[in-house]
Task: structure prediction
Amino acid sequence: MIPENTPLPSTETHSLVPLHAFTSHTDRAWHVSFNPSPSQPLLASCSGDKSVRLYTFSLPFSASAPTPADLQWTELAPLPTEHRRTVRALAWAPGGRMLATASFDSSVGLWEREEGGGSTWECVSVLEGHESECKSVAFSASGTLLASCSRDKSVWIWEIQPGCDPECLSVQMEHSQDVKSVAFHPTDELLASASYDDTINLYVDDPTDDWYVTGRLKAHTSTVWALAFSPCGQFLLSGSDDLSLRVWGRTRTAERRGDGAMPTSWKKDEDTWEVVASVEGAHDRTIYSVAWGTGGVPREQGGRGRIASAGGDGVIRIFQVMVDPSNPSSPPTIPPIATRPSAHGIHDINSVAWCPVPSASSDASSKPLSQSIQEDDFTVPAPGTSMRERAHMENVLASSGDDGAVRLWWLREGTGSA
Result:
């Protein structure tokens, strides 16, 4: 049974403040993605104009108590893509040194920064095999696996190893319609795919054989367009043409057995995923994109990050995910905390993405960002801040739309005019 819907209250606690807009794309902007590396402050976007564009951000030295409003945004040279049709989606590898692009020309491109080339990126491989438009790509947490999906109803899993040609490990034909999105779990080698057939499939690897479907999640009544795992890995978020958001919760084997500890024989394929929260009518038209970021209410107070959603109604909505801090295994609630109507004017919004924040243990976190960039041989305007000060970036969201624009937003406390 689907849990009772989270209500949409009439009052909200935050507002989305516009920071900057890039308008270089000459066709609809399909997707945006932030580079996860703390030493590479980059945002990438792709478009129906066949291009991939890169942007960087920095803080001025004069910003003693910086906020996102102090950020300076700069467009870099576009990638010299050779895709023959629309570039539909992007994904950065966890280390930020590789970018994958999915195109309607049925191919996937892999890009790396040229050695000693500063800000120059080169295409190091083109993955072919799909028989129709590629819709989405995703790297695993280790960066050694890449998933791609297509209108041909397939999900391909590739092995990506330094110094080796990419190798296809598996082709999964487990959907009956167009596959819209793929997403890897943040720590496990667990892959999710969403489809026009209204379902979500979960895949794991059998080391002695092949990848296989370990779960088929059915709760949406129309196309599932978007997926995002929670940063903690306990939840999976989906957005659909049925106008709903669903949060799926993971129940591990030991929890179901009631023995209180993870058995030594535990396997990912013994887990179950069930809907633990939902928002019906989250949008007035199709939900095309969802993103799950950190920030907001602290974890010890029950916070489990924040959700962004957007779609055909041109609205961006932000939700705070909460669990009972005295009972962390309790079902989450997802009250909305901000709404931005007409975020791209009258146009559909195709993608939203939170800026990732490096962990406190990051090797680069104690270095000035300008030093990190120099050591990585990457040339961008040198910000006058250390990566410890990038924590405020958890409140920065990017979006892309049919107007061809890439827009940056600050999720700010308070509901004053913006």
